[in-house]
Each structure stands twice: as C-alpha cells, then as structure tokens.
Amino acid sequence: MAKAKQQQRGEFELGEEHANPAALRKAKRFAAEATTIEGELATLDERSSLLNKRFLWIKTQGIPEALKQAGISQFTGLDGRSVEVEDFVSGTLPKEEPARSKAIALLEDYGLGNIIRTLIVIDFAKEDRDDAVKLYNQLRRNNSLNISMEENVHHSSYISNLKSRLEDGKPLDAKTLNIFVGNTTKFKAPKKGKKVK
Question: What DSSP character marks residue 132?
C-alpha cells in the first residue's frame, strides 16, 4: 500500500511531457473554468457589496429623509408592502475604563439600573474543582483566590431599553453610551388577500 502511494506521488511529480494528453487537456479545461468562476465570484462579491451599501443608504437615509420632508412616518409601497420609518439604536457598552463606568453610571441616572448585572469571576485551578462547589464559603474565608468583579448589561437589554427611552422622547447621551442613534426603514408584506393597486 505504501509503495502504491509512493508511486502515485512520483507520477504527480513528473513534468507535463509525461502526462496522458487527454487527461491533461481535461485538467487544463477545469483550471480555465475555475479561473472564470473565480473572476465571476469576485464580480458578484463586488456587486453584492455595492447593492448592500445602496440598500443600507435607502433604509437609513433615503426613505427617512423623504418621509421627514413629506411629514409622515409610513406609507404603502408600490409593491403593496407597508413601509415605516422607526428609531434605530446600535452599539455596545464601552469595554475600556473609565468609559465603561461612566456609561453604567449614566444608565443608573436614567433609571435603568435594573438591567445592570454584576458578575464575579473566580479563577479556580483544575485540582480545586471541589472548592468551586463551595463558592460562597470560599469567597468569605480565602483571600488567596483570584477574584474579579465586573458590571455588565446583556446586549439585547441594552439596546431595547435605550430604544424605548428614545421612543419616549427622553434624552440619550450617545457618546457616553457608545451607541449610534438614527432611523431605519421596516418593510412589511401586505396582508393576504389584499390586492396591490
């Protein structure tokens, strides 16, 4: 078996002049096809990127700005879909200090302290697994444990609570909270049986 593998490897190491002409032509056709496909995929990627940018611009700037000028927040599109502009919030709690602590303090000022979670992390060695089961007692009596404490907010709670605050017309300090606030467009399919004019 090893000898057969060696012979096969040896055959692949030979130059083109030793190849079976029909098989070599086949391989070259596959290589040419692969090159063509690679080029087409690159073009598709570029086209996809351009379309995504345009779509994002239409959703976050084009339609919201047009509707602002029209003085409305929703309409029925030419395809029968409901088109509505709503507030959009994205971002995360800052990772670095002191920005993180400032954002957490601001959440408390906004009355959102209930979404803040306090995490205590203890680094136990593998052989100390039994001690982990007795966590509460270890925290009280063993000062040699490697303990860290961190305040955190679940991402979806962070965004949904800040968005609700925005929708209620209350102020948001986007810079301190490390968020982007803007508009986005939601498209909803027409109800079944409803005809498009």
Answer: H
DSSP state letter for 62: I
Whole-number Å distance between alpha carbons of 28 and 92: 51
d(CA 87, CA 166): 8
64: exposed, middle or buried (Cβ count in 10 Å: 0-12, 13-18, 19+): buried
Q: b/e for 7-28, b at 16 or more Cβ within 10 A?
A: eeeeeeeeeeeeeeeeeeeeee
59 in Cβ contact with 185 (< 8 Å) = yes
What per-residue confidence (pLDDT) applies to 175? 95
Tell me, yes or no, if the pTM score tops 0.90. Answer: no
Residue 158 exposed, middle or buried by CB count within 10 Å (0-12, 13-18, 19+)? buried
Residues, the chain: 197
Q: Which residue has the tokens 């939601």?
A: 186
Q: CA 5 to CA 179: how far, in whole Å?
A: 59
CA–CA separation, 16 vs 190, rounded Å?
62
Contacts of 195 (CB under 8 A, 6+ apart): 80
Helix (H, G, I), strand (E, B) or coil at 153: strand
Q: Across the 197 residues of the chain, what is the mean pLDDT of every consecutive 10-residue run?
A: 49 74 92 95 94 95 95 92 92 93 94 90 80 68 68 91 91 93 91 60
